[in-house]
Amino acid sequence: MPVKNRFAELLPEITAWRRDMHENPEILFETHRTSALVAEKLEAFGCDEVVTGIGRTGVVGVIKGKSNASGKTVGLRADMDALPIHEATGLDYASKTPGAMHACGHDGHTAMLLGAAKYLSETRNFDGTVVVIFQPAEEGGGGGREMCEDGMMERFGIDEVYGMHNWPGRPAGSFAIRPGPFFAATDTFEIKVKGRGGHAAKPQETIDTTVVASHMVLALQTLVSRNADPVEQIVVSVTSFETESKAFNVIPEHVTIRGTVRTLSDVMRDLAAKRLPEICEGTAATFGATADVNYMKGYPVTVNHDAQTEFAAEVAAKVAGDCDDAPLVMGGEDFSYMLEERPGAYILVGNGDTAPVHHPEYNFNDDIIPAGCSWWAEIAETRLPAKV
Q1: Which of 154, 198, 235, 344 has its CB 3.0 to 4.6 Å from that of 206, i.e. a possible disulfide?
Q2: pLDDT at residue 12 above 70?
Q3: Is residue 69 packed enough to be buried (19+ CB in 10 Å), middle (13-18) or exposed (0-12)?
Q4: What percent of the chain has pLDDT over 90?
Q5: Average pLDDT score over residue span 80-96
Q6: Residue 19 — left, alpha, or beta (φ > 0 → left; ψ -120 to 50 → alpha)?
């Protein structure tokens, strides 16, 4: 079952939706225009039910098959939000909102799922129910968690759930997936170091927080090299180092450092949450300073379920001719919350030779729309085979 012909016919229309969303990006839960557009399209397609306001600004559409002997319901999820990035593509349809950009392709994900919803609403060639899920705030806001906490899975009786993300660097329209842990847990930390400020000409009278915090930056890497099992995956990155003084001759009383920890198992995540404060507090004490450590747990590990991953790969191979084994990804993904609630799988679709996601020159590749739409539609039709 290759790419469905209907999506080749719909490509200009779906592309127009995608580029309209690209021009009008919205961040986190502020997807009011996008959510309204999605709801309007779903209603126009003839979905049996369209519900807004789930997870604040999320949208859910219900499409019933020609029969419901199975009583099963499959969920298909796309994210809608953009990033706080100033676009540098120079496209005719570039963002009209300064400081906001669809730099991760969520405009493409939403457009492809809308395309699949239109097709499924037209054909209804399946037995059961398909629920299309349009989620806000994937980029750090936890919109997936919010939709689940609003009771989405129970309300719509979702049995399984599937998601997709475009992937620059992979051949356009190709697929890759892996079972088990896939995307990392994404935790953050903020460390406030307090010493004793003073004149830079008299360091002996101070407790130099810049020196203390610098030792912390280096000591934190021992969490990876000397605390973690070498065969496990863990990344510790200090990304911000901020002193309260900008003067040339002042030793600051306070320094704040921030960063992120990425792990692919609960064991490593718990280890980091325990050892990171211990390392920082111990390093500070060595120099007579103090460290106030705030370790904040973010998205959990995205774990693909074995049976659903195998099924998703089989469908991808039907659409594209093959499905590759995906590498582990240390980036985070809040589809993880939905996979904690229900069995399912998350797959990558190649975006071709484009700038990476989260880059100001990134753009979603419209040529992959038929492949993405076909995968979602085929997930529904194969998982819920029509009764003869």
Answers
A1: 198
A2: yes
A3: exposed
A4: 98
A5: 98
A6: alpha
